[in-house]
Amino acid sequence: MTRVVVIASLLALRVSAQGSPGLPFVINTWGGPFTAATDAAFLSLKNPTTSALDAVQIGCATCEKNQCDGSVGYGGSPDENCETTLDAMIMDGTTMKSGSVAGLRRIRDAIAVARAVLEYTTHTMLAGDLATQFAISNGFRASNLSTPEQEARCAAWREENCQPNYRTNVFPDPKTSCGPYTGVSLNSSAPGYKKAINPDATQASHDTISMISIDASGVMAAGTSTNGATWKVPGRVGDGPITGSGSYVDGEVGGCGATGDGDIMMRFLPCYQAVENLRLGMSPKEAAEDAVKRILRKFPQTASGIVVTSAKGEHGGAGSGWTFTYAFRGGNMNATEVVRVPPVNPVVEAIRMQA
């Protein structure tokens, strides 16, 4: 079979964008336990006094409280020090104002603190202990984000010589030791330098809730919440709280939510790209696929998932490295529906680029 035939066959199999079920409308990354967030956000919009921003906050907060899949909220994804830190972002599709927190410590209500950044400052992001200080000054209560289950998991990880981890180019060998680590000298002109600083992707799968809501009048908002990558280097922040990466919305065009290997995905601002693809006339599915393929051309092993909706609630998704799912509910739907999205094949994408 020639390359042209292969490509034509693949294009024929491509599923078109899903039509809109009507407004109000809520869509977010992942099915399973994440559908509780979809339902909470959608049902909140039945109240005419609930804004699109309110709905996103309600949906993400539902996952924070439920500890969705152990990857959102307290007690999950500990770092090397066995501490959970939280990242969250919320964005208004009309004003384009966003608020976010990164590496938030000791505060469970990450999406609510992000909303406070949006409403009570002219900033976009606050980070770490000073974000915690801001939260406390605005009435949030500090508490321990660890759980007994998390602490037991950390003990087992240390007994296994801290495997896996995210260290590279350090001494002692991070494949056999817990450290403490010291960086080894690298020669930026050496032939192997690019490979040394860009090893194959090793991030274990972790999930972010990224949600877009559209109220009955068509006003849009978006947001994310996550506790990040398990065994991350303390201080690491992924794509979740980065406007345009973990989520993005422009009420005139549409919105996007992303999940996956945030350290790689944030280099491409995939949600900003996807919304701009909508502006250029692509369908939601085409917009998501293009954003994923841009990543795969440089990093073919990346695990990713991107969901896109137009301002009318037409929707689609794309992913790589796993079977991605997203959940949506709109109009007069009586229940949330989950859509399964097969992964884009990086080998096929490479063939297409060479054709």
From TrEMBL:
Signal peptide: 1-17
GO CC terms: cytoplasm
Positions marked as site (Cleavage): 207-208
Active site residues of this protein: 208 (nucleophile)
A Pfam family this chain is assigned to: Asparaginase_2
Keyword annotations from UniProtKB, A to Z: Autocatalytic cleavage, Hydrolase, Protease, Signal
CDD domains named in the record: Glycosylasparaginase
Molecular functions per Gene Ontology: N4-(beta-N-acetylglucosaminyl)-L-asparaginase activity; peptidase activity
Alphabetical list of InterPro entries matching this protein: Ntn_hydrolases_N, Peptidase_T2
SUPFAM superfamilies: N-terminal nucleophile aminohydrolases (Ntn hydrolases) (SSF56235)
UniProt-annotated binding residues for substrate: 236-239, 259-262
Protein name according to UniProt: Asparaginase
Organism: Bimuria novae-zelandiae CBS 107.79
